[in-house]
Every structure is written in structure tokens, then in C-alpha cells.
Amino acid sequence: MFKAILIEKDEQGYRAALKHVDDAQLPAGPDVNVTVKVAASTLNYKDALAITGQSPVVRKFPMVPGIDLAGTVEASSHPDWQPGDRVVLNGWGVGETHWGGLAERARLNGDWLVPLPPAFTAEQAMAIGTAGYTAMLCVLALERHGVKPEHGEIVVTGAAGGVGSVAVALLAKLGYTVAAVTGRAAEADYLKALGAATVLERAEFSQPGKPLAKERWAGAVDTVGSHTLANVCAQTKYGGVVTACGLAGGMDFPATVAPFILRGVTLAGIDSVMRPRPDRIEAWRRLGSDLDVTKLGLITREITLDEAIPAARQLLDGQVRGRVVVRVS
Q: Which residues touch 285 (CB under 8 Å, ≥6 apart)?
């Protein structure tokens, strides 16, 4: 038996509860070939939606949520993994269509796993989680498109959230000048401690703006979408790059083609869920070398598995700063 958050849906309704689950209930099949003892997981926005049922994230029932996990291989028939290997997982539909990381044990496809970098403990890896891994993918995209620190400021929207917090810390460590956008004025000192040079009010970006505005940014990491993304694109300098990885403000994109055809702005979409394994390994390698681990203490709140369900509601209510690490075992 092992402890897990289990989401069920039947004639009695939709509910999530902490339960003791029999090992025999773990996923099975020819491609499910690695069993991991989970040391830590994390609570992402998608996990909070799944736990509360506020969005149809979960596609199969019953389901263990948790799109991230870090732990140690207990058993494996996969050629790449042996018992005792330290591993990390992000995405691949885990916590949506396949049992996820908010449990003491997980059984997974070994192709979904990557080595846990020696620089991190399991808890530190989950302080990074999908949010930090996505932030690193955004930074890599900016680099691939030739955006350098000397080209100008990088704006990060939703900066006090999980992706935004890690993006600010990463960019600052790499020498970029970062402008952090947040709707929480009280987080200004926090964002400056992460490395932001300036903190801007979300209201400047969240309303409809001009199709083409004054050039301000050499690049951007946008976690918000909607009018915020449109305004960021409209303010990006000639040849600049905007990475888009979130939709906290909405799925719409009320923009024009003006920034793209008149200023040569690039809009780079960042997907983390189905990202090929080589990209994942590179992102985690770079996190190991480019993220100041001392900053993780600033962005992280640790909870137990028992506390994850109420914390999910707090996250959706905008009461959570940075990252939530769930100590599983």
C-alpha cells in the first residue's frame, strides 16, 4: 500500500482525497516499465485545476494528479534505468491520462524519465519542476534566436508565479536586465531579490493596446497570454523574440500582424509537455549550471502530501508565490 491523492468521478460527483492505494492498482502495460519511489512532487497550476475540478484536466478516472516527480528507481525493465537511479519527470500527460507524482509510488514509461542532475536534491528539482524547466526552455529559445544581454531588457510577465520566478532568476544570473510584470505590488522586493531590475504593474499590459507601440524589449517570457501577450509583442524591439508559454490571462491573442511584419518580431511557442527527450536533458543540464540554487529558498514553499488539496485551492485563488514543493516520502 502507498499514500496518494486520488481523483474520482462517478454518480456522486467529482472529488479528490488522500487515500491508501494498493500497489496492484498502479498502471500496467508493456510500455509501463519503471517503478519509482517518489521523494517529492510539486503543485502546478494544472495540478490545482485537476484537484479542484475547475477545468477538465483529468481525462481518465480514477487519477493520481501531479505532472512532476523526482525520486529513485525501485524496479525497471527499461534498458536505461536501474534500481537506485535518481530520476525526474515532467509532463508527458502524467497526472492527466496517466497516474502522476502526488503519490508515494509511480509506475511509468522509462522514456519519460531524465536523470536528476547531481546539482539538485529531489526537493530542489521539484522547486524547479515543470515551471522552472519551462522557464529554461524559454531562455534557450531566446538564446537560439540570438538574443543577448547587451541587446536590451527582457520582460517577464506573471513574474511572481512559478515560471516567472524561475525565469527572472535564470535571466538575471545569465546577465540579462529583467523587467518583471506582476499584479501583486507586495511582491516587488521578492522579484528584485530574484534579480529583477524593475518591477512593472500588470495593469500596464492587461488592457487593449496599440497594434504597434514604442519599442521597449529585446525579448520576453510571457506566461499570461491574451492582451498581455499582444501588448508585449507590440512593444518588442526590431528583431526581438517573444516566448509564449502560458495562458493565465486567457487563451485569446487579440493582436495584429504589425510587430511581425514591420519589426521582424519572432513569437516562439514553448511546449513543455511533449518536448523531445534531448531537449529535456539539455534544459535540466543548463538548470544545473545556470540556476542559482540559493534563490530556490526564496521562491519555494514546502508542504506535505496531506496539505496538497487545500493548497490547490489557494494556488487558484492567487494566494501562492513561486513554487510549492510537496514532500512525499
A: 117
Looking at residue 316, its pLDDT comes to 87
- Nearest of 169, 162, 204 to residue 183 by alpha carbon: 204
The percentage of residues in the chain with a pLDDT greater than 70, rounded to a whole number, is 100
> What is the third-level CATH fold of 130-269?
Rossmann fold (3.40.50)
Instruction: From 32, 24, 99, 20, select the one nearest 59 (Cα to Cα).
Output: 99
Beta bridge partners, 300, equal 323
* CATH superfamily, region 2-116+294-327: Medium-chain alcohol dehydrogenases, catalytic domain (3.90.180.10)
Residue ranges for the chain with pLDDT beneath 50: none
Condensed to tens digits (0 to 9), the pLDDT of residues 35-52 reads 999 999 999 989 999 999
pLDDT at 241: 98
Sequence ranges of the domains in the chain: 2-116+294-327, 130-269
Residue with cell 536586465: 177
Q: Quickly count: other Cβ atoms within 10 Å of residue 256's Cβ.
A: 14
Question: What pTM value is reported for the model?
Answer: 0.92
Q: Which of 209, 143, 140, 170 is nearest to 299 (CA)?
A: 170
Distance CA 148, CA 29 (A): 46
